[in-house]
Amino acid sequence: MQNQNDISRKEFIRQVGIMGAIASFFPPGLMAGSSEDIKKIRIGVIGCGSVSGQYFPHLSKSPYVTLVSACDIVEERAKSAAAKYAIPNYYPSIEKMLAGAEFDLLVNLTNMQEHGRLNKIGLDSGKNIWSEKPMANSYMEGKSLMDLAKKKNLKIWGAPAVIMSPQFAFMSKAVQEGKLGKVSAAHAHYGHLGPTWSAFFYEKLGGSMPDLAVYNMATLTGLLGPVKSVVAMLNIITPTRKVDNRNAPIKVEEEDNSMVLMEHASGALSHVQSGFNYFDPYGHEGSGQDKPTISIWGTKGNMQLIGYDWAPTGVDMATEEHEKTQRFATDTGSFVWQQGASAISESMSKGVDPIITTLHSLHVLEIIEAARKSQATGTRIQLKSNFKWPLV
Q: Given CB 3.0 to 4.6 Å as the disulfide criterion, which of 12, 24, 77, 275 pairs with 257?
């Protein structure tokens, strides 16, 4: 017996013929699947080290991107990336890249200590910026970059891209719709045994907060709104480290262990713990983590993010209406942490504003700075910055 969903070869040919006739009435580029009308954003990437190995594959597959240049102070790395991803130009310095082939968006994947300096050079040269976290090394430096971008009619955005996940969207909607009642408290954690491929993670202006806690801070402020004050305790658990790009052990100069308590303007209190001294077999790669890393409590419900916020796999929620915990938002195929620059390129191509905002990134940067000041002074630190909320 023939299934009603099956069609004969003759009928298939007839239907294809009809579709072909319909297509003939439309100009080229207007039928689904055509990329002729897509505006390509030309990209120059600076920093061809570890993180670029995640970014380049994503950017190279984006229909909104043309990879123009690769740049690294170790020229061989730039040359290798250019060959692997069919990038026509490579350079050993930002000055030579900016003087070379034209592009629209500078993607900064360098050491975090260099972000502010290089982002300013890029803006001064008329380039929009997507910067890995943090976009600068202080709130005031970041704000000056934002002001410079406005003056030049440019844009600067900063990682992380955690607010783009479907799990974040689900959690934000639940909070905004009052599913949890009045949110009172939240906790987030992220840590592992620390990177070994470079010393910069442990040098001044490095540390576990701008590398790890920044994800949780972006997620919690994105969900619960701006923070008005911070209290923190930070220290160094492992005073020396052996890393791949140094012959001798190095001295650790920034925190590798942090506890940050945030008072949100809404009244909710949230806590972020992070560090480079956590035994966690899932910590750095993320795959396999099936436990909650973010928890939120309210007067009518609670909610947990399963997996890391940069690699989430679902959301567990229990409420007054349904007291037994249910799992939601299990889509794991539409978000990866390294998609930020690709998403910004799509927004630029379409002429729309992305949900990632400069003000939110700057707010997270001020939280990190306030946490260090709190540790240094033993006091609660009031914040100055704000951002438009909710984001989603």
A: 275
